[in-house]
């Protein structure tokens, strides 16, 4: 029996809303069937069965009252990948093994979808998630980047502090939690470093950190790239908390505004995304008072819902078009 490839798999988690719904609606308008997979519901509420024999493999997914096989999936949106939600009754010594086995099973499922169109595939997302690689490639395509030091040497951090005239921020190379929205103390946001903070910098020998010059801000920009389309939201940096990190939970960011990037910045952005082979990315820039655009970082699965909601930017439609190009629906 031949199954038509009319399903688009949306990979997310059960707490996700708005963005996931908008993309699902945009896909339905294109005549394809969105199938939402909340990865935190596997393995307790999602059933996954894989059959392998000499000639072929066959994966079957059941969630709620719906089911799909890999043969039906034409495209995959990698929105969020979450850790399996397991019962608290599970003994701790078994929990780690169950999580690892569940994740390995899902990896096999992703592999079975290698013929589908991905926005974006995990290999490219993981490659692009290295903040140091991002800075190197940003510099190579012509973006201005902040002076940056990564070190586990206390003396180097102190020297850099004086080199940037005491205008320094610190951040981690990796997010230590699954979600910014989780409001977890394990996620360290970009924070200002004062001289007294460096008195105890010997602890760096346990964990290297990223230090950057603090860039003067006129505006903070969230730039969303979708398969050649560019959508921009700007925040005025004169809001108190925005001066450091607007993404921190509880920060009143003020009003998002429309903003248009200069052609030269757009060309560099296209070259940057091409180097990573990504169809999607949320990027952060600072526009300085002197008019320079300074690249900070890219999140290959970053947030954009606030720009669609507040500025009516058609990002969900662009994602749907990237998943199911004209003529494929």
Description:
It is built from 8 helices and 16 strands. The protein has helices spanning 19-29, 92-112, 122-128, 131-140, 154-163, 263-276, 305-311, 315-323; strands at 7-12, 33-38, 46-52, 57-63, 66-69, 73-78, 117-119, 148-151, 168-171, 191-193, 209-213, 219-226, 229-236, 257-258, 280-287, 293-299. A hairpin with a 4-residue loop joins β3 and β4. The chain is globular.
What is Rg? 22 Å
Largest sheet: 5 strands, antiparallel
Spatial arrangement of strands, main beta sheet: 14-13-12-15-16
Q: In terms of per-residue confidence, which ranges show pLDDT below 50 for 5 or more consecutive residues?
A: 177-187, 239-243
Helix content: 25-40%
Order of helices and strands, N to C?
A: EHEEEEEHEHHEHEEEEEEHEEHH
Question: What overall form do the CA principal axes indicate?
Answer: globular
